[in-house]
């Protein structure tokens, strides 16, 4: 899995992810996770999840963002952005249980679904983005996971 992060500062973590990112203070968020279709069994439905935490004492100033799942070789970034879904990232106590708490201490939110097709080749991208230009502080991105649905 490749994790593409822009304008973020990389730090270490004891989670199961190879890359962890701590969002210090930025005004645009764009997180991309990719996986090659050759790594996935064909004809299987998958979901992509963003695993994250909030720094203690930081309020969540990223209440919602947009998410997309796209086959990179078959769908343009602009077309995918035009069909993006809204994802909510509130703290658990403020949201009645959404996003879901994981066993490793992270929270996760579903970015979307896709089917691995027998005749599809190339990367699949799961993306979370937010472009409202308000500063975002205190989000720790653990990674993007692709799991069978």
Automatic annotation (TrEMBL):
Pfam families: PP2. This is Uncharacterized protein. It comes from Solanum verrucosum. The lineage of its organism: Eukaryota, Viridiplantae, Streptophyta, Embryophyta, Tracheophyta.
